[in-house]
Amino acid sequence: MSLVPTATDALLVIDVQNDFCPGGALAVAEGDRVVPLCNALMERFATVVLTQDWHPAGHASFASTHGGEPFGVIELPYGPQVLWPDHCVQDTPGAAFHRDLVTRPAQMIVRKGMNPAVDSYSAFFENDRRTPTGLGGWLRDKGIRRVFLCGLATDFCVNYSAQDARALGLDAVLIEDACRAVDMPGTLADALATMQAAGVTLAATGDVG
Hints:
Layout: E1 9-14, H1 34-42, E2 48-53, H2 63-66, E3 73-76, E4 79-82, E5 108-112, H3 135-141, E6 146-152, H4 154-167, E7 171-180, H5 187-197, E8 201-203
Parallel strand pairs: 1-2, 1-6, 2-5, 6-7, 7-8
Antiparallel strand pairs: 3-4
Helix pairs in contact: 4-5
Organism: Caenispirillum bisanense
Protein name: Nicotinamidase
Keywords: Hydrolase, Metal-binding, Pyridine nucleotide biosynthesis
């Protein structure tokens, strides 16, 4: 399979936001290391989409909302939910894109997790697995047949986005070195195995273009 981007390919840059970078409320180790790689990748694609966690205060995914401990798991009406530290609250500095991320190439910004009762890891669907973000239809209308994914975090939002891309009939390529993981016990290994089982291709930045 050629990994040279064409007019039917799109790059999805997932959640490269301050709260997921060192010093942020839900910092991913070395999260800021993906920024220059994402910037370089954007130059190779005609279609670029950025996603942005955009939670209201008191979101159902926040441990503080339930008086629980961060990284515990509870059951919500749509299924298991990891409880996260408050993060990416709308219109706060933590929700902003990393200052060094070049946003100019993006044709679309998908804000997700805005429903106070439902989390949204995927760029395509909320965690109820039924409510679309609109990205799938937008890509279909543009004639996109394959997506490349980079950003944060490999084992959650990137993983769910890649799986949903495959479920929608799109080819998907995970650019591993341009991602970083939360890596709770077993989550990264499980995510990589699940993505590969779904037909996601694993690649590196140097393979693209």
